[in-house]
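Okay, any thoughts on this one?
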Amino acid sequence: MQNNPTGPYDDVFNNLAKIVEDIVKNMPESQHARIVGYTIITRQANSGDPEMFHAGMQDDDDEIPYEVVETDTDLFITAKLPADPKNAPIADIEITCVRIIVDGKTTTIMLDHPVDRIHSYYRIHRGVMDISLKKNKDL
């Protein structure tokens, strides 16, 4: 799914990401900090703030760095992709896991909650893969 080329918010979100990156770079101990990507969630969960946790093995060169944000009804995964992949990256969405596949390398993300595959999707824009997963209400 591509962004709308005339989307008024694309530049705002990119500028916001650059501002946050500059802030992080200027913080003490910033040599270990980095920006993986960004996901801006415009709707709020019914029962409080969304939870965010970092996952993935950052020290493994074969692993694709990613972040997971969870709300009561959704999971959002943001992954930074290699600069020049030879093939189109793929997100293989399963009920209990997501596999990000880039040029034969696979990063598997195990999910704490089963997801509804039909209402889950991913998109790639400017080197960042955003995966939106709808939690399965029936399980």
Summary: Residues 10-25 form the longest helix (16 residues). Residues 53-60 have pLDDT under 50 and may be disordered. The CA atoms of residues 68 and 105 lie 20 Å apart. The beta strands are 51-55, 66-70, 74-80, 90-93, 97-102, 105-110, 115-125, 128-135.
